[in-house]
Amino acid sequence: MFSWLGTDDRRRKEPEVFQTVSDGLKKLYKTKLLPLEENYKFHEFHSPALEDADFDNKPMVLLVGQYSTGKTSFIRYLLEQDFPGMRIGPEPTTDSFIAVMHGDTEGVIPGNALVVDPKKPFRKLNAFGNAFLNRFVCAQLPNPVLESISVIDTPGILSGEKQRISRGYDFAAVLEWFAERVDRIILLFDAHKLDISDEFSEVIKALKNHEDKIRVVLNKADQIETQQLMRVYGALMWSLGKIVNTPEVIRVYIGSFWSHPLLIPDNRKLFEAEEQDLFKDIQSLPRNAALRKLNDLIKRARLAKVHAYIISSLKKDMPSVFGKENKKKELIASLGDIYKRIEREHQISPGDFPNLKKMQDQLQAQDLHKFQPLKPKLLEAVDDMLAHDIAGLMILVRQEETQLPNPVVKGGAFDGTLDGPFGHGYGEGAGEGIDEENNRIVIGKANLNTGVAFFTRKLTLKNMLKTLKLAKVIHRKL
């Protein structure tokens, strides 16, 4: 007779069925997580609201590093072609954030036009103002690599307080915004420039909650001898250990990521193996994109829950009439004790809480009396999403992975890196020493130079075929 009373409970226990992971994430976010964020001003404290484009966009790779560490050359190396707005030089050349994305025709979209495009995941960047938008562009070009991933090039990080102020926008905050939405963060270091400036240190600390996305590349390693390389690698690990406070060792890839021959080829095997490892990691991004978005939504939901407890606790302790300002100062000063109390009452891990100092600074500009009290229904909806709906999406993630038409990144430097005479292992066995300039094959009176003048480390398929034909001619003559 009263069976309708239990329909809400049954609906809560039975997870919803979705057609795709992307659609499921959109619906769960809008119906269960977004109401909690809006009620407790999550977007003012932590991160802007997510939009459909954030769930639909291709995997993105963010390149971060000091000036002249080879960030733009790294993109050029991956694509094997120039992109609009590209500038390479030993001096600080890239002064803008450049989103390198796929397009039918080559062109550049300026930042102010880019943030109003609903198909691009950059709409929320308008909060950083014109000073940033004037330094933000999207370079579009038809390239097979960009059909699977997008790459974000960033300005070179300088040292000194003056450079940071002259940018006109919060550089670390912009990088933190990108870090929340990208699939991989690559920190590039120059083998001759290992010093970590104050701004670079601030940037690395801003990426603290995204260690799982960070990969480190020691670039230009072919310019130093083996013994020096060993010392440089140790110095880099020592410098990173002081900033990245994790018990695990960060994975560092060593190599020379541009299309020129190696200056010192002693460590060729090492560089080739490291390049393969890095390329495999990047190639796995499309296959793991849905899982990464799911993981980021779970992290966001956990932070939103903790934020709701903090805001409601502050509201509960605020007086209703007199002494609001003094009580506000007292509560902000004792925020650490409030953290510990919430941790005990709700059995929350200390790692789920936001940065204490940053939270105290943000609360200074807020009216604590206008905060909302705790609403159990909003929290129950998020708990239900984490306990039941996410489990259903995990099954769908595995199904989508097996049905992907292009599960790995293809084109550019990713083609032919494992097979072929100039791929991994090139220069071993019968081909050992083929890149040495003095290596010559004498046929009669003919002198054929097969040295580095004719070869680069990365040869296109067309050049490979030409070289194979030349080898056949030599074989017949011999």
TrEMBL record:
Q: Which UniProt keywords apply?
A: Calcium, Cell membrane, Endosome, GTP-binding, Membrane, Metal-binding, Nucleotide-binding
Q: Which PROSITE patterns match?
A: G_DYNAMIN_2
InterPro entries, A to Z: DUF5600 (IPR040990), Dynamin_N (IPR045063), EHD_N (IPR031692), G_DYNAMIN_dom (IPR030381), P-loop_NTPase (IPR027417)
GO BP of this protein: cilium assembly; endocytic recycling; endocytosis; protein localization to plasma membrane
- What topology in the membrane does the UniProt record assign? Peripheral membrane protein
* Domain of life of the organism encoding this protein: Eukaryota
Q: Which CDD domains match?
A: EHD (cd09913)
Q: Which GO terms describe its molecular function?
A: cadherin binding; GTP binding; metal ion binding
Q: Does the keyword Isomerase apply?
A: no
Can you say what this protein is called? EH-domain containing 3
